[in-house]
Amino acid sequence: MSAFPYFVRRERASLKATILAPLAALAIATLINLALYAVMGKSPGAVFYAMLLEPFLSWSAFSEVLLKMGPLLVIAQGLAIGFRAKVFNIGAEGQFILGAIFASAIPIYYPEATGGWIWPAMLVCGAIGGALWASITAFWRVRLNANEILVSLMLSLVAAQVLNYLLLGPWKDPNGFNFPQSVMFQYDAMVPTLIEGTRVNWSFPLTILFSLAAYVFMQKSFLGYKLQVGGLAPRAADYAGFSQGRAIWLSLLIGGFAAGLAGAAEVAGPIGQLQRSISTGYGYAAIIVAYLGGLHPIGIILSSLVMAVIYIGGDNAMVSAELPIAAVRVFQGCLLVTYLIAVAFVRYRLEWPKTADRKVA
Q1: Distances (CA, A) of 227 to 122, 165, 284
Q2: Reduced to 3 states, what is the DSSP secondary structure of residue 8?
Q3: Apex 306 CA angle, 274 and 41, nearest 5
């Protein structure tokens, strides 16, 4: 028998340990990265101040955190529903891009249109666009048994090329000095500002409402219960007559809907036009947000706030502490790894082989 320790699954994970796991992961990831910055010759104190404290020290800085939090929150809520059903949608970035494209079609084709209906229509079109792009993955997974991780990820690359084609071709602003961008959207195509003096708009309350809907769906509805059972016990779900194919379709469509909604809110909100830089990695960062929040709607609200702080604080640190942008991404990845390790110890305990067993080995 092996002399090495092994993991044994706990009968029931401690609620206290489950709550403390993301906090411990954040603390450990912070210490690891501060040590890394010291090795790089940067001041750990200056980086810590700029990245994790400065975003809270002024209303203008915190408003940017809320602005960044919105897309991360809504995408992560949509992905978490699928993840809990063991449907791994890794292509939210592409669905985000398609949502931005579908939403932009209205002001691009109808630049003279006016009325309060334009920006809500853009959000609806964006959500539909994201869901349609996710439906391609669902079709390949259900009908052809293709791996949804690979299909959704590859479709994100296709979406980026579709965006490039449009901005370098038919949707390119003729007066944009040859930059790959669309025309600026008219006033009625912009989501109204929620807080005067900031860029926070009415799409932020929509993300909170979406989070509430996600909580009700997963915690209170029978359909959400079926999705969770299908993820935790596929055989039991099959025996109960729960359709796996339907769960895959529903999970991917919800994830695509959420990512498309976020993409629409981005072009109709702080950006105000379709740009190639619309693809900023929200879809990938939202995966970290979903897991850091324990795949629970309430936890995801908190984890999206943390990730938004890292985004804005990272920008501050790049200026004030001369931190490279790659260091911010390393922080995000380290946060996910430390959380997964922490969760492993929450769900499993480490046991050593008995002395007699080691002698026999």
Answers
A1: 30, 38, 23
A2: strand
A3: 95
